[in-house]
Amino acid sequence: MADISCNFLGIKSPNPYWLASAPPTDKEYNVVRAFEAGWGGVVWKTLGEGDPVVNVNGPRYGAIHGPDRRLLGLNNIELITDRSLETNLEEITRVKKNWPDRALIVSLMVPCEEQSWIDILKRVEETGCDGVELNFGCPHGMSERGMGAAVGQVPEYVEMVTRWCKTHSDLPVIVKLTPNISDIRQSARAAHRGGADAVSLINTINSIVSVDLDAMAPNPTVDGKGTHGGYCGPAVKPIALSMVSEIARDPETHGLPISGIGGVTTWKDAAEFMALGSGSVQVCTAAMTYGFKIIEELNAGLSNWMDEQGYDKLDDFVGRAVPNVTDWQYLNLNYIAKAKIDQDACIKCGRCHIACEDTSHQAITSMVDGVRKFEVIDDECVGCNLCVSVCPVEGCITMEQMTEGSDPRTNKPIDHDYANWTTHPNNPSAVKAAE
Amino acid sequence: MSTNAGSRPDIQSSRLEDEDYSKNFSDIHPPLNKHEAFVEADRCYFCYDAPCTVACPTSIDIPMFIRQIAADNPKGSAKTIFEQNILGGMCARVCPTETLCEQACVREEAEGKPVKIGLLQRFATDHLLEDGDKVFTRAALTGKRVAVVGAGPAGLSCAHRLAMHGHDVVVYDAREKAGGLNEYGIAAYKSVNDFAQKEVEFLLSIGGITIENGNRLGETISLADLRQNFDAVFLGMGLAGINALRAEGEDLDGVVDAVSYIADLRQAKDLSKISVGRKVVVIGGGMTAIDAAVQTKLLGAEEVTILYRRGKEQMNASEYEQELAQTNGVTIRHWIKPNKLIGENGKVVAIECEYTESKNGSLSGTGETLTLNADMVFKAIGQNFVAAPLNGSAEAIELDSGRIKVDENRRTSLGDVWAGGDCIAGGEDLTVAAVEDGKVAAEAINDVLSA
């Protein structure tokens, strides 16, 4: 059986799944339940300095639902821990002592003053925790006070605070990045320059999850008003994967350990983050939706898949997909694919047809010889994959590569050579191939 | 309860405890609540050229009304339904969806579980009827007047569409209440809480429609007079005749016409007053047979048997309806026909039957007989059109196979007379088909009147 134990920055855990810094990791009670359920580690909910913060006493969450009210996206306006620093430190100390085989990282957020970081690091080191995560990400509330995303959005601040932490503590430092920037590489490079041991991403995305049309106010609505919150859950996974891949393939940060976060719900999501270079993954919304028991599926699914693939340990596949993430300009323009509809699997809903007919290339029939039938017209199909995307039956429509003959759409013979935009004759700045 | 088994025949009322009546005759498919409706609506794929819509005789835009439910717009959803089928509320209750829209649903093909279109339609239409919002208004009045004969699904559908187009409509009906078979046919548990009348009220709220009850064609009104006094006439009077068994003993006490029995049951204020036999035999294979059989069982009959002269596949009642009868304890026996009814002192006590077989498509008795004891025998072998009242005083209207002949616009051989519902040739014995007839005829009438 595959070994799914994880060693991230020397921090060991029986599996790569950590609970992200969030409500599920705010208290000893929750964290112990998580460990009992089998979670590999936790990032303890963000600690701050001084008197505890105060949360709103009305709703803190809003949600986007898919069919059957399946939660696709969650948004929150909760702040960092609202319990006293002493209580948290005491509980962290006890939990780490009782659960030595689990990863216990402590998330921190204090004002951008060196002394504040020196003070909190000193207190946290005494707990015996495995590392710290710098919360440069929360987009709401704390950012108005010059913390969280307000720091993460300025690469110079990211670098400066990271450096303070590395200077004043021996603990491994993970810098948690905000996605509310235009180029994630800038923040990651800054963390790297500051000496970060790793980055974790993404924190939540600025969001208004919905508008209450009766109250005419954003949800969640607190006494008639709402504010933007942090968006997370399955809906944000694609954004997170892209950002993780950017850091993994950036020459400046390539090799910088990454803890992947953003909508991980099943083992497959986790494997995808890891394939793009994440050494561990952090989970929150899925646990907040279904409870801690999902760890059993996350572990079993990953282990089973690794066995099938012949991967003995996580390192065997972490980062494997990174070399295959490229720029558009390097995609092979000689690769020709056509959609193919499995008529036995087709349930004749016609969504492929209408999507193609109304919005794409008129390449799918609705009627053949007077009978309702959906077939791809190869002469028109550009291989766009829209039909695959909208088909409700998995595997019914597939994209098949053409390897022989000519593309009936262009009448050009299939060229087996690789050729991309950089050399294409339509590209005014094409590099002419050597004679 | 029935204890006097010795004194045959045993027909009596009050076989059940009071509470059992309301339990047995409560809503057979309880309505979806909002949560259930959302969950179910989410299952719809919003198909292109949706097979469900194609399968609906009234062409309701089913994916659209379901999408409107999912988008929390039940009123808009109901409007989508009513635009095509003004009796969409009753159709949601009585349509054999398992052989129409739900059979065509791609999720039936995908996983054998179609979207519950009928229940979703009921959710939307109930919402609008309960809200009482007015969604239809009349066009500018035309001053034209149309007579409609029969306030059943065909006539009401026609009247509503005509009123919408600005014409004034007078609907004549022989019965005390409007609704036709929606009010007098249909098993009670399919239309509870006086729904048929509520639907009529909703339909009439558009204005411009007058209902004249207690007027029977050939008695208080005549086709000739209607043609003279109105700009157009629509005939939707259904089937007045009951097919005879043509078996000896048909006149014995206890041999009952199922259609009248179902009507009496629907009109009964107190179901415990309805008499029912202890051993009941129902002859026939359609919906009327099923409705009579299930309801007599629910009234406390001990044994209820449906006899049908052909096989399961030939029964007009859908497979779902057959199963409904069976799960209610009704026995369905195929390939058996009645030979004669046996009586004692003028009352039926048994029925002698003969096994049948089909040879080269024609049905014949095998000669082997069996006798079933029965206190009550229901005739449910179909109804027929009684044409006599039509032509009492005017030129003859053309018939086809004993019913009124119409073209695709439901126009009869008389240029100013249209017809629809069960009384026309090719009539399908379906509420939803009758509604479509009325709608199509109304559009055709409107075209002619506004030409």
TrEMBL record, chain A:
<dbReference type="InterPro" id="IPR013785">
    <property type="entry name" value="Aldolase_TIM"/>
</dbReference>
<feature type="domain" description="4Fe-4S ferredoxin-type">
    <location>
        <begin position="337"/>
        <end position="370"/>
    </location>
</feature>
<keyword id="KW-0411">Iron-sulfur</keyword>
<dbReference type="GO" id="GO:0046872">
    <property type="term" value="F:metal ion binding"/>
</dbReference>
<keyword id="KW-0408">Iron</keyword>
<dbReference type="InterPro" id="IPR017896">
    <property type="entry name" value="4Fe4S_Fe-S-bd"/>
</dbReference>
<keyword id="KW-0560">Oxidoreductase</keyword>
<comment type="similarity">
    <text>Belongs to the dihydropyrimidine dehydrogenase family.</text>
</comment>
<comment type="function">
    <text>Involved in pyrimidine base degradation. Catalyzes physiologically the reduction of uracil to 5,6-dihydrouracil (DHU) by using NADH as a specific cosubstrate. It also catalyzes the reverse reaction and the reduction of thymine to 5,6-dihydrothymine (DHT).</text>
</comment>
<dbReference type="GO" id="GO:0051536">
    <property type="term" value="F:iron-sulfur cluster binding"/>
</dbReference>
<keyword id="KW-0479">Metal-binding</keyword>
<feature type="region of interest" description="Disordered">
    <location>
        <begin position="403"/>
        <end position="435"/>
    </location>
</feature>
<dbReference type="InterPro" id="IPR005720">
    <property type="entry name" value="Dihydroorotate_DH_cat"/>
</dbReference>
<feature type="domain" description="4Fe-4S ferredoxin-type">
    <location>
        <begin position="372"/>
        <end position="402"/>
    </location>
</feature>
<dbReference type="GO" id="GO:0005737">
    <property type="term" value="C:cytoplasm"/>
</dbReference>
<comment type="subunit">
    <text>Heterotetramer of 2 PreA and 2 PreT subunits.</text>
</comment>
<feature type="compositionally biased region" description="Polar residues">
    <location>
        <begin position="420"/>
        <end position="429"/>
    </location>
</feature>
<dbReference type="Pfam" id="PF14697">
    <property type="entry name" value="Fer4_21"/>
</dbReference>
<protein>
    <recommendedName>
        <fullName>dihydrouracil dehydrogenase (NAD(+))</fullName>
        <ecNumber>1.3.1.1</ecNumber>
    </recommendedName>
</protein>
<feature type="compositionally biased region" description="Basic and acidic residues">
    <location>
        <begin position="406"/>
        <end position="418"/>
    </location>
</feature>
<dbReference type="GO" id="GO:0004159">
    <property type="term" value="F:dihydropyrimidine dehydrogenase (NAD+) activity"/>
</dbReference>
<dbReference type="Pfam" id="PF01180">
    <property type="entry name" value="DHO_dh"/>
</dbReference>
UniProtKB/TrEMBL annotation, chain B:
<comment type="function">
    <text>Involved in pyrimidine base degradation. Catalyzes physiologically the reduction of uracil to 5,6-dihydrouracil (DHU) by using NADH as a specific cosubstrate. It also catalyzes the reverse reaction and the reduction of thymine to 5,6-dihydrothymine (DHT).</text>
</comment>
<dbReference type="InterPro" id="IPR036188">
    <property type="entry name" value="FAD/NAD-bd_sf"/>
</dbReference>
<feature type="domain" description="Dihydroprymidine dehydrogenase">
    <location>
        <begin position="23"/>
        <end position="130"/>
    </location>
</feature>
<comment type="subunit">
    <text>Heterotetramer of 2 PreA and 2 PreT subunits.</text>
</comment>
<dbReference type="GO" id="GO:0004159">
    <property type="term" value="F:dihydropyrimidine dehydrogenase (NAD+) activity"/>
</dbReference>
<feature type="domain" description="FAD/NAD(P)-binding">
    <location>
        <begin position="145"/>
        <end position="438"/>
    </location>
</feature>
<dbReference type="Pfam" id="PF07992">
    <property type="entry name" value="Pyr_redox_2"/>
</dbReference>
<dbReference type="GO" id="GO:0051536">
    <property type="term" value="F:iron-sulfur cluster binding"/>
</dbReference>
<protein>
    <recommendedName>
        <fullName>dihydrouracil dehydrogenase (NAD(+))</fullName>
        <ecNumber>1.3.1.1</ecNumber>
    </recommendedName>
</protein>
<dbReference type="InterPro" id="IPR009051">
    <property type="entry name" value="Helical_ferredxn"/>
</dbReference>
<dbReference type="InterPro" id="IPR023753">
    <property type="entry name" value="FAD/NAD-binding_dom"/>
</dbReference>
<keyword id="KW-0560">Oxidoreductase</keyword>
<dbReference type="InterPro" id="IPR028261">
    <property type="entry name" value="DPD_II"/>
</dbReference>
<dbReference type="Pfam" id="PF14691">
    <property type="entry name" value="Fer4_20"/>
</dbReference>
